[in-house]
């Protein structure tokens, strides 16, 4: 078990942080206004506003019309990289290998271990082609093929996530995608060694040091240099998310992700310090992240609140965590664990921890969650890096109708239909009747030509 750093001497800053933590919402399902307060807590409007949409629309259309020239212009303007030709923004694969080989041994080993686990899990997701033959010789089935080319967007600068490179790139490769094209901004020309090393481990085929809406547009429509892809995956800021939404239809996308979320269901038997740190693990992403705890034990909720106040000043990103918890965090008392399941399904969280004595008893009743972490020892952070399942998950309640990123997102299915002469006779009569009922006589006659007299 990791030891908790000792509490530093109290200063004005830490006292202010502690005071802010007192603002975390306290809800109780027994209160008459619970539903209204929960709805307000969960409310999340689209990150895009009119100004963002207008700016992104201009960039996307410009790249679509002017190609490389527009991408170079926006890269100079937004990233401070003065490049005369796109070829200079195309990193050679050798640089990815060198980045990996010059990492400290522990980082190389961590990347390889995580990649191995992600790959092993992804292999189990591969869909296979299948057919079956009916009595009259008609053959029906499904043909599964990978996409030709996938685009992987990777944040650059301060937000550098090598784990996302692995989580997005490896499933594409397992699916059999012919080419994985990665784009990553390099503000002022600064590259992140871990990100490049992760690209090497994931087997990325091309890397362009471009970012923002211009990179999304380049992947979606292609330029003289950047090839057009079939799907764009990977996280990004407000401009990237808006661009992905805008180009959807010309290209597939994984999802439009909102802020990170964690919902913990606890029976009161887990060390409160563990639960506090689990909440912090998502709240530290950004000020809009959401961290919620459900528990039937009111005294335990207070113990967690004490742990939050004590541990918060030990965090490097304490200000971000404090803001997130005050704005969108909550400690919620439920009547029992059955009600906790009902509330969890209503929230449909990105990450759900079942920190209880018998998580299996609850897991089967969870209908809406991006990922379910079962038991007291299963920290959500393990899923972010190396457990194996993908960490690209539905947010903002979209787990009600969507799923984690996986190999299946990089595969396409085609229906297979082969009719024998006998099958054409039988099916043709049915098709003719239905087609004439719809008034589509060409459909009917096409089927009737193959019907036996």
How would the blueprint of this fold be written?
Blueprint: H1 12-21, E1 25-28, H2 34-42, H3 50-66, H4 68-79, E2 90-91, H5 93-101, H6 105-123, E3 130-133, E4 139-146, E5 149-153, H7 162-175, E6 179-183, H8 193-202, E7 206-208, H9 212-221, E8 231-233, H10 238-247, E9 252-253, E10 261-266, H11 272-283, E11 290-295, H12 298-311, H13 318-328, E12 330-333, H14 337-347, E13 351-355, H15 359-363, E14 371-374, H16 380-385, E15 411-418, H17 421-437, H18 441-448
Parallel strand pairs: 1-12, 5-6, 5-8, 6-7, 8-9, 10-11, 10-13, 11-12, 13-14
Antiparallel strand pairs: 2-7, 3-4, 4-15
Helix pairs in contact: 1-12, 1-13, 3-4, 3-9, 3-10, 4-9, 5-8, 6-7, 6-8, 7-8, 9-10, 11-12, 17-18
Fill in the CATH topology of the largest domain.
Rossmann fold
Strand order of the largest sheet: 1-12-11-10-13-14
The end-to-end distance, rounded to whole angstroms, is: 79 Å
Question: How would you sum up the global shape?
Answer: globular
Radius of gyration: 26 Å
> Which CATH first-tier class of the largest domain would you pick?
Alpha Beta
Multimeric state of these chains? single chain
Give unreliable regions as ranges.
Answer: 1-22
- At the fourth level of CATH, the homologous superfamily of the largest domain is Nitrogenase molybdenum iron protein domain
């Amino acid at each position: 078990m990791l030891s908790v750093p000792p509490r530093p001497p109290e200063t004005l800053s830490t006292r202010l942080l502690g005071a802010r933590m007192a603002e975390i919402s306290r809800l109780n399902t027994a209160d008459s206004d619970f539903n209204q307060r929960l709805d307000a807590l969960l409310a999340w409007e689209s990150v895009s506003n009119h100004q963002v949409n207008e700016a992104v629309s201009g960039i996307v259309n410009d790249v679509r019309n002017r190609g490389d020239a527009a991408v170079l212009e926006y890269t100079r303007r937004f990233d401070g990289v003065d490049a005369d030709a796109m070829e200079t923004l195309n990193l050679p694969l050798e640089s990815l290998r060198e980045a990996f080989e010059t990492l400290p041994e522990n980082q190389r080993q961590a990347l390889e271990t995580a990649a191995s686990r992600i790959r092993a899990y992804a292999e189990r997701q591969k869909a296979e082609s299948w057919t079956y033959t009916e009595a009259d010789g008609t053959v029906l089935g499904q043909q599964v093929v990978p996409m030709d080319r996938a685009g992987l967007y990777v944040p650059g600068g301060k937000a550098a996530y090598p784990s996302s490179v692995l989580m997005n790139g490896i499933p594409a490769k397992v699916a059999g995608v012919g080419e994985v094209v990665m784009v990553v901004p390099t503000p002022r020309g600064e590259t992140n060694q871990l990100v490049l090393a992760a690209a090497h481990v994931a087997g990325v085929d091309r890397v362009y040091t471009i970012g923002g809406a211009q990179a999304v547009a380049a992947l979606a429509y292609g330029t003289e240099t950047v090839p057009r892809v079939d799907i764009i995956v990977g996280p990004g800021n407000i401009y990237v998310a808006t661009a992905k939404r805008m180009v959807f239809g010309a290209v597939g996308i994984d999802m439009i992700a909102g802020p990170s979320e964690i919902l913990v269901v606890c029976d009161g038997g887990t060390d409160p310090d563990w639960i506090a740190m689990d909440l912090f693990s998502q709240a530290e992403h950004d000020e809009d992240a959401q961290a919620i705890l459900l528990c039937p034990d009111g005294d335990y909720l207070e113990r967690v609140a004490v742990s939050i106040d004590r541990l918060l000043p030990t965090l490097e990103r304490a200000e971000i965590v404090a803001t997130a918890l005050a704005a969108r965090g909550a400690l919620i008392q439920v009547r029992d664990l059955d009600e906790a399941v009902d509330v969890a399904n209503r929230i449909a969280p990105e990450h759900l921890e079942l920190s209880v004595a018998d998580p299996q008893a609850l897991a089967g009743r969870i209908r809406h969650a991006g990922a379910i972490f079962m038991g007291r020892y299963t920290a959500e952070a393990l899923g972010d890096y190396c457990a194996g399942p993908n960490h690209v998950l539905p947010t903002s309640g979209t787990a009600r109708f969507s799923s984690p990123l996986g190999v299946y997102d990089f595969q396409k299915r085609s229906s297979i239909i082969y009719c024998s002469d006998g099958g054409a006779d039988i099916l043709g009569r049915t098709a003719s009747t239905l087609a004439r009922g719809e008034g589509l006589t060409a459909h009917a006659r096409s089927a009737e030509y193959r019907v036996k007299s």
